[in-house]
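So, is this right?
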Amino acid sequence: MNAGPRFARLEDWLEWQQSLHPQAIDLGLARVSRVLGRTGWRDPAQPVITVGGTNGKGSCVALLEALLRAGGYRVGAFTSPHLIDYRERIRLDGALVSQASLVAAFERIADALDGESLTFFEFNTLAALLVFETWAPDAIVLEVGLGGRLDAVNVVDADVAVVVSFALDHMEWLGSDLESIGREKAGIFRRSRPAICGVPQPPGSVQQVADETGARLLLRGRDFDAVEHVDGRWDYHDERGDLLGLPAPALEGVAQKGNAATALAALRQLADRLPLDRAAIESGLTAVRLPGRFQRLPGAGGIEWVLDVAHNPAAAATLASNLALHSVRGRTLAVCGMLDDKDVAGVLAALRDRVDRWFAATTEGPRGLADVALATRARAVGIEMTAAGSVADAMRRAAHEARAGDRIVVFGSFHTVGPALACV
């Protein structure tokens, strides 16, 4: 093998990786498997939980991480994309991976390319696996980037596979209907190993994949469930027994008790290797944090900010439900920034009745959508949206028009919420 490039700065490595492969998305495991094999990486000895799904993946990973850490386990977690710092994607016991560890992993991958190339995400995935190999945590939690069957994360055989939800998104890659999308997402299932499904009625293709692979499919509502109390607490039920009166997870939103039940179902399948007592479960539920998912922050002048990465119609519908649940006495203003390849009309339709005033923001990057173009698409579905420049400019414009008692919702993409976090 020929030695790859050497860069001292992380930014130079990331710039090189973005130009390495001719396509930003190139699903398939062949190249990834060959390069990973040449690094000398070995399959993990510790339990691996792989988390897929259209929405809720990040919340489920955060819950798994918090619950395991509360039980005293050292956890390696891989998620994407990041909001502010690339190192958010690889966490070691809650801390961002060090630049030195990342660079060492990048060098090892670059030396193993042997004339092949990887996409930016594939490079990122292999770096996470190499970092975890060196660090040797007690458990590894991996978030699927896109789909499942052909996603780079699927190069690892998960001890427990989780699919949190199914909705129409990335249809150019995964198929135009839920049956096709379900088959792709269920591609992370493994023979004789548990596969946790976070919805009661998944597409029929999910059960078909489980039957074909010999995975043990566990459905929320059939094999495990969450039952909410009026006081906010909830009960968890599965074949192993009940956990009654659990505290609500510290993540806000109507979907989070279901996400917590899905995470618990996965961990209880690993109880012989990673046992958790009730005290750890309660501690993990109350300690979990995840920026950018219905994140409510106080602002100057009696204004509330709400940050949410919702970027497809299903996630936007959940955001609308959360806004209805947490009403304010004033108006709701929205700063919306989306990527060009997203279902803008579907997202806006889900939130149409929850927003009084709209501002369009430009999202950066090759898939970004300019504020004027977004406002034009909004107008085509009957929503008047003011083109307001960058995310920071649009937030300033909204804040100038807001009054005490109003809230400003910033949503539509990680590329929108990331810059917003730097402003509030």
Remarks:
- The CA atoms of residues 71 and 279 lie 8 Å apart.
